[in-house]
Amino acid sequence: MSRASKRRRIPGPVCRCFRSWLWDAGRGANARLTRERQLLSIEQEAADKRRDPPRPAHPPALNVPGAVLATIVLLGLVHAVRTFVLGPAADDRLVFDLAFIPGCYETDCVGIYGRAAGAGFWTPLTHAFLHGDWAHFGLNAVWLLAFGTPVARRIGARRYVLFSVAGALAGAGLFFLVNPALMEPVIGASGVVSALMGGACRFAFGASRQFGESASEVPLLPIGRALADRTVLVFILVFFATNLATATSFGSFISGGSAIAWEAHLGGFAFGFLCFGPFDRRRAA
Known about the structure:
elongated, protease, serine-type endopeptidase activity, Rhomboid-like fold, mainly alpha, transmembrane helix
């Protein structure tokens, strides 16, 4: 018998088991190699990002909430129609029917002067859509951009509109309390602008706001904490001092002889500062 014939064959099941073990070992090695390559790829991507961080997206050139922009456009269109479309007589009639006239609540302006019936119901709001001239409109438009933008971003378009309407009513209300018999028309969106200023004082100026933090993300300051904040307090004092100064002859000087409805400013601001909480969607600090 030859030597070759003396070799013992490996049983079939053992051979298949050995081949299966080799196959599993190879697959395991390949899987470990694949995982290692994936980890290296992730680490490489992270290192690349650290070396060359992604550039932030460029904000739009006019980053103004649509509600604020629509407000300014509407006010501008109203004044443009009065200036370029209506004649003097029609414009006077429009102002008489839409301006807020406190004395008309005691005097029969409908029967005596032919004012539109029911004007006393809508004029506490509609007076905010009228302006004395383009400078008056432009000044209010600038303040609307400055203070309406953070307020609208924080509370949303619908609440911004409701808040602005309430600010106009509050301004007209305080003006009526101070001048109940005045027969001069009051026009302008200053009461609305002042309400937006007062509301912004509750979250936009506080010392708790971190650098680079959006004003719409900070907690709402309670009234007491807002008054204790130096920045907020200085802003309020300057606002009240400036408006009280307009009640003197200095106010007529800076306005070119036209009276400034400082009462409407103070009424709108007080409402905005004291009553912003129910309109806010964030929690108080």
